[in-house]
Structure formats: C-alpha cells, structure tokens
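Quick start: read one record
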Amino acid sequence: MDDEGTHRIVHLAFVQDFRNIRVWHDARALRARIYELVATFPGHERRGLSDQLRRSARSIGANIAEGFGESSRWDCARCVQISIGEAGETLSHLYDALDLHYISQEQFDAVASELCVLRRRIGALYFKVRPSGNGRRREPVRRRRRRQSGRDSDG
C-alpha cells in the first residue's frame, strides 16, 4: 500500500509480492462476501456445502498468492490457471446453495456477477504471466531410433 492507503499496482515483470496484484484483492473481497452468505446457511450444512463453498472461495486468492511465490513463469501460470478452476467450483457451489434455497436469487445474482468478473480478470492475468507460445510446457523432442533390419551392413 502507498501512503494514501490505496493499493499500488506494479507492472507484472517486477511483481514479487502477490499483495500488489489487484485481482488478488478482488478475490479477497469475494471471499469475505461468500463467508457472510455462508454464515446464514442452516447448521447442518456446516460440514457440507458451506465448508466446500468457503474452501473453494478461499482457494481462488490462495492460488494466486502461491503462483507469485513460484520461481518460474510456468509454475506461476499453472497456479493462476488453478484459481480459475476454483472460481468455477465456487460458482457451482453457489448454484447448489440457490437450488437448496439457502440464498435468494438476488443474492446469487450479485455474487455470481462478481465472481464472473473475477474469473475474467484472472483469465487476463493468466495470459500476462504465462510464457509466450501456446501456453504448454514444451517437452524435448525425442526422436525414434530407426529399427535395424536383420541384415548386417557388411555384406
């Protein structure tokens, strides 16, 4: 944070600290909102849906933080990509909560909208941190040895 209490966003080439990543702050705010929603769930869901929803929401930001602690762009991109999956899992759990009438349609719409924006931002972050190319780690090319025929070449 700078002296005015706002978060300074640093160009990704120089980022070492996940706290300088705006999308991490967005994930943190979403996590807090989901925790507030889950607090209203019935008591019997404490170890069920509410636990799953809290875990997946918490993992979104945690994977971003982990990624920026990795030593390579590949590993950072992998962690960011995992956080996109966690956002999808969180959305699925929100649908479950809606279907079970634990949250209202209005609550669902508000959080789902926020989550979809977050997923797009994480996707943009992924394309910034991944190494150039097709996004896949390139394996060394292994050439097949030619099978030798049963004949000797001396002959």
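The first helix runs from residue 22 to 38.
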